[in-house]
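Here's what a typical entry looks like (phosphoglucomutase (alpha-D-glucose-1,6-bisphosphate-dependent)):
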Amino acid sequence: MTVKAVATQPFPDQKPGTSGLRKKVPVFRQPHYVENFVQAIVDCLPDRAGTTLVIGGDGRFLNREVVQTTLKIAAANGFSRLLVGRGGLLSTPAASCVIRKSGAIGGVVLSASHNPGGPDGDFGIKFNGRNGGPAPEPVTEAIFARTKVITEYRIVEADDIDLDTLGDVRLGEATVTVIDPVADYAALMETLVDFGAIAALFRSGFRMRFDAMSAVTGPYAVEILERRLGAPAGTVVNAEPLPDFGGHHPDPNPVHAADLMALMTGPDAPDFGAASDGDGDRNMIVAPHLFVTPSDSLAILAAHAHLAPGYHGGLAGVARSMPTSRAADRVAARLGIPAFETPTGWKFFGNLLDAGRITLCGEESAGTGSNHVREKDGLWAVLLWLNLLAATKTPADQVVRDHWATYGRDYYARHDYEEVESAAAEGLMRALRETLAGLPGRSVGGLTVEAADDFAYTDPVDGSVTARQGVRILFREDARVVFRLSGTGTVGATLRVYLERFSKDRLDAPTAEMLAPVVAAAEAIAGIAQHTGRTEPSVVT
């Protein structure tokens, strides 16, 4: 096997977003495109000689090919050991787990998360550091800077390795180890939740449906839920990872998990429903006839985490992304622990987790996690829910209603305006920022603006400042609206409008009814229709 230096030229569009580099598949299939970006990652690891690198992805279209390319580039650049999931598969939380357990210098994670797959779908590459978490901004900026000046990449000339057989194989000067993608993750879960209690719950006749959405969580859910915990065969549906996710949009929300929602709201609803996304880091929780918002789920897990073995000692603190509802803050206040508000992007939780300032964290976009890894973790959240259901012996819908009775209810919704022309979306945000100073005291549709700002975050661990993270408008009536452009799409811009209203006594009103004044105020203040030409959101969750 020989190492070849291949001349190349930079691509101008390889700037990583909040979750790595994401583009349409045809963009990644351009000659040298993948190689350039992977080499740029490698070049930003000057101490890589003799270290371990973890490689894997969610199994979407192009995953196997990019795994092979990444292995060959890594082998040509001084890594001594390369760990890759069988079939090229590793869920994002499992990749974090393997990085941390193996002492690797980091990992190359191949995923576009909850975005669609297939030949015309999305693909993504990101780098996770030694702590198992997404690379912080200084690292992603260094990678982008390198992509702009790259002139060659180094690659081992060799046949593709057999990704489907466990064990070691030599590739240049490196040893490639094909590992069971589930084993380390499943072992970690057994230390965090009470497998015995959950198994007894299933033996009692408890019924559950888990929709893996033809994505990477399928093998993990089958192994843990059905084989180790004894859930009946067929509890996990859409369990085989497919390159196009079986035509599904692997985003676990009531729109894209419509079959699960229909089952859970039907006459023979099982006791508990859940789903996960393309790369296994997001989750959806559904009680019979009741969708649990991700914001409420985080708060409920924070209130009950002490019931699980891994959290018996209590929580150091909790954190949520700024657009996530304030429900978790109310739990933290009652527990007497700190609550942190961060920008969107899991990497912002990393410093807090590493410093021991928090134990649980979450985002409204269906991501929940803890200090066990440095990624959000869909199946872990489902298992922690099962733990609390087993411990409290309370039906899932009653758990939610009891929580509202104790803490009040944060009515919440997110309106997504997808694939908006970028200039129009940026124009809306620019105009909105220009009006902020004059908003306090203004009455709109029965609500009065109390405060308005452009959210900036000062990291309490390292003092770094992250500005312009979304416009917040707070109303005196304990309501809130947030405007933000998403960084996870691949076409145009996605305008996200987050709507929230708290009530201590109206706990069972229709969400749309409670949020109607907030929706009206958001339109009046931002002029969404005027700027975008859209009179309705693309998706409401």
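The longest helix spans residues 511-526.

More examples are in the samples folder.
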